[in-house]
């Protein structure tokens, strides 16, 4: 199986404490990979190293079979924390700013508006969008550079059930367009409905990685890992 991204013993230390400890991920091409873990487990720190926001303390990242360099960021789109939206601009205007920054043809704006389902927003300012629409605009901004890898950190946070369902269908459609998605979440049901592969991080360690099989009891697996880790801490 061809991998778009691997990490080898990736570690990040803050004040002598490992937030991420020797994490070795294997992300297959053209899939949705669910990165699971409780709040504070090390998911966001891992994604920030992959996107170049944080430098690893040790370990390596390999992208598309080669050592990671900052030049690969042109092939990685990311939505980490809040979407970087100008609230006084329309969806199209926000994307135009991004297209100019990345030197992308303006035709791409219509393509990504269609992908995320925002073609009908017209002159409506992004500040008046629902939370779900803002998330989708954030994803459009991450997609405008035609990335091969899209990284989404807790994208369903704060969304209502309709917004979650719309976002889920959008994410599931992307691998068919040649885009691999890493989806970070602590919401098990959402990952179960969306992901093809999963990794579970707890206490900065990758405790499980594998294909998400039909009928798999993800909740039991997840809770067993979390309880086991926390009983070690207590002991």
Automatic annotation (TrEMBL):
Membrane spanning stretches: none
CDD domains documented for this protein: ABC_BcrA_bacitracin_resist
InterPro entries: AAA+_ATPase, ABC_Gallidermin_ATP-bd, ABC_transporter-like_ATP-bd, ABC_transporter-like_CS, P-loop_NTPase
A GO molecular function held by the record: ATP binding
Keyword annotations of the record: ATP-binding, Nucleotide-binding, Transport
Domain of life of the source: Bacteria
Keyword Cell membrane: no
Signal peptide, first to last residue: none
SUPFAM superfamilies, A to Z: P-loop containing nucleoside triphosphate hydrolases
Annotated PROSITE patterns: ABC_TRANSPORTER_1, ABC_TRANSPORTER_2
Domain called ABC transporter: residue spans: 5-228
Matching Pfam families: ABC_tran
Family statement drawn from the similarity comment of this UniProt entry: Belongs to the ABC transporter superfamily.
Protein name (Swiss-Prot/TrEMBL): ABC-2 type transport system ATP-binding protein
């Amino acid at each position: 199986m061809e991998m778009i991204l691997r990490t080898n013993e990736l570690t990040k230390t803050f004040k002598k404490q490992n937030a991420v400890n020797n994490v070795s991920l294997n992300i297959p091409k053209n899939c949705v990979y669910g990165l699971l873990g409780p709040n504070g487990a090390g998911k966001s720190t891992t994604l920030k190293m992959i996107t170049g926001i944080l430098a690893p303390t040790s370990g390596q990242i390999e992208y598309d079979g080669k050592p990671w360099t900052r030049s690969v960021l042109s092939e990685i789109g990311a939505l980490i924390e809040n979407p970087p939206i100008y609230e006084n601009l329309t969806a199209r205007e926000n994307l135009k700013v991004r297209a100019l920054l990345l030197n992308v043809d303006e035709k791409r704006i219509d393509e990504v508006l269609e992908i995320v389902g925002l073609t009908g927003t017209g002159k409506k300012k992004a500040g008046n969008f629902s939370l779900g629409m803002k998330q989708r605009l954030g994803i459009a901004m991450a997609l405008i550079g035609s990335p091969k890898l899209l990284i989404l950190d807790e994208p369903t946070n704060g969304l209502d059930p309709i917004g979650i369902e719309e976002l889920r269908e959008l994410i599931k459609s992307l691998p068919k367009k040649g885009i691999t998605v890493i989806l970070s979440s602590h919401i098990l049901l959402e990952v179960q409905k969306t992901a093809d592969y999963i990794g579970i991080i707890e206490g900065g360690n990758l405790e499980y990685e594998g294909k998400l099989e039909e009928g798999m009891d993800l909740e039991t697996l997840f809770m067993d890992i979390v309880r086991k880790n926390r009983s070690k801490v207590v002991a």
